Structure formats: structure tokens, C-alpha cells
Amino acid sequence: MKRPIIVFDLDGTLIDTAPDLLDSLNHSLAAGQMQAVDTVGFKRFVGHGGRVMIERAYSAQQKRLPAEEHDRLLKIFLDHYTQNIPGKSLPYPGVLQAIARFEDAGYALAVCTNKFEASSLALIEALGLTKHFTAIAGQDTFPFRKPDPRHLLKTIELAGGDPERALMVGDSQTDIDTAKAAGIPVVAVDFGYTDRHVSEFEPSAVISHFDDLTLDLAAKLIGSAKGTGIS
Predict the structure, then answer these.
(1) What sign does the CA torsion over 166, 3, 213, 86 have?
(2) What is the CATH number of the domain that holds 167?
(3) Boundary-marking domain end, from 46, 61, 83
(4) What percent of the chain has pLDDT over 90?
(5) Are 122 and 51 contained in the same domain?
(6) Which residues of 43-65 are buried (b: 16+ CB within 10 A; e: fewer)?
(7) Which residue in the list 9, 16, 175, 177 is annotated as catalytic?
(8) Catalytic site residue 9?
(9) 130 Cβ partners below 8 Å, 6+ apart?
(10) Which of 53, 68, 175, 217 is the most exposed place for a label (fewest CB within 10 A)?
């Protein structure tokens, strides 16, 4: 029997990357002679990677963004972000303890993110977390990405997990919609990068700290989704 699995989103879920993403976004916007984004407005732009962040920033300022300029600014964004990893980014409180809790219980752990795979790997490695994950899948790992449910399902497959005994943990509507489409229960953290409270997107459960991500909660949600218990 394959192991049960917890699949985490990365930015805004496992790791607080907002300060570094904001720095890199504003660095790229400055290169395009655009106004900087503040920490409040930033939450409206995240969730689909750097390209979409730049696109949303331009749209918010009602500025046209030609394709070639978009490509140029994305490269500036990625170069700045990569050169400064891990920067100010840190795991959220309780993340390390939650990882240990589920590892000890025999769960596989994986990451499914819309951050580019190379940036994801570099960040997780810089924070010393790589050894905990049997798969780390970014937006370019497969020819599809969240909210396409295949991104999550292929991540589970890559990790050697069982989609019938899986749980997603994320911070956004994208994560919640992805899990629902894959038929997998989803826990939403309410401290991530969304300008609406995650409860509005009707996840299976909402937590405010990783201490609340317990073995009992995971077993209950996985069992309820499939109509069976988990052992």
C-alpha cells in the first residue's frame, strides 16, 4: 500500500516569501518605469507566479504590457529573486514541527507550487528543507499548473503517494480549486497571500497556525473524502 501524503503549496503556505517576492516585483517594475507595489496591494498579485504578478501590477496601473516587455521584466524579476535566495524568507511558525509530526507518522510530503521549479528547489534547499520532500513540482515541472488538477495529481504520483489518501494544504483560491477538482480534501491557512479570507472559497478546513494541522485532522479529512478511515 502506498503511503498517505500531504501536498503543500509553497509561497504563503510553507514559507513566508512575501518580502522577497515584493522586492523582486518592484525591482522589475522599476525597470519598466512603473510605480512600486506596496505590501497591502501585493496580495492581489500573487498566486500564479512572477509572470502573472507583473501582468496584474500593470493592469492595476492601467498600463499596456507588450509581450516582449513582459518577457524582459520577467527575466529581471527571476534574476533578482534567484540571486537573493533565501533573502528574508522563512518557514511559518510551526512548519518544522508539522513536518516532523507527519514524517514520524509515515506520511510522504510534497510541494506543488506555481513558482518555477528551479526557484522552488533553490529556496527549499537554502532553508535546509529538501530532505523532507519526496517531490517538489513547480509551474514548469509538467505541461500544466494549478488550478489544473493534474498538477496536484502528478505531484502525488511523482512523490509515490496515494491520491486516495492525500491532503492538500494551501493559502489561496487556486489551491482550493485545484484540490477540489482533483477530488482531494484541502486545508487552507488563513495567513497567506490572498485579499479575501480563504473561508470564502470553502476549503475542507481552515487553520490559523501549523499547530492546528494535526494527525487527527488529516485522518478525518482524508477518511471523510473517501468514506473510509486511514491507517
Answers:
(1) negative
(2) 3.40.50.1000
(3) 83
(4) 84
(5) no
(6) bbbbbbbbbebbbbbbeeeeeeb
(7) 9
(8) yes
(9) 121, 124, 136
(10) 68
Span 106-117, pLDDT tens digits: 999 999 999 999
Sequence-separated (6 or more) residues with CB below 8 Å from residue 173:
47, 194, 196, 198, 201
**What integer best gives the mean pLDDT of the chain?**
93
Is the pLDDT assigned to residue 227 strictly greater than 70?
A: no
Residue (of 9, 25, 5) closest to 138 by Cα position: 9
Question: CATH number of the domain that 77 lies in?
Answer: 1.10.150.240
* Total-model pTM: 0.88
Residues 6+ apart with CB under 8 A from 80: 23, 24, 27, 28
Per the structure block, which three cell numbers stand in for 164? 486516495
Measured CA to CA, the distance from residue 39 to residue 192 in angstroms comes to 13
Chain position carrying cell 477518511? 223
Distances from the Cα of 28 to the Cα of 53, 57, 62, 200, angstroms? 11, 11, 17, 32
What's the pLDDT tens digit per position in 146-204?
Answer: 999 999 999 999 999 999 999 999 999 999 999 999 999 999 999 998 878 999 999 99
Confidence category of residue 47, pLDDT binned at 50, 70, 90 = low
Query: Is residue 205 in a domain?
Result: yes
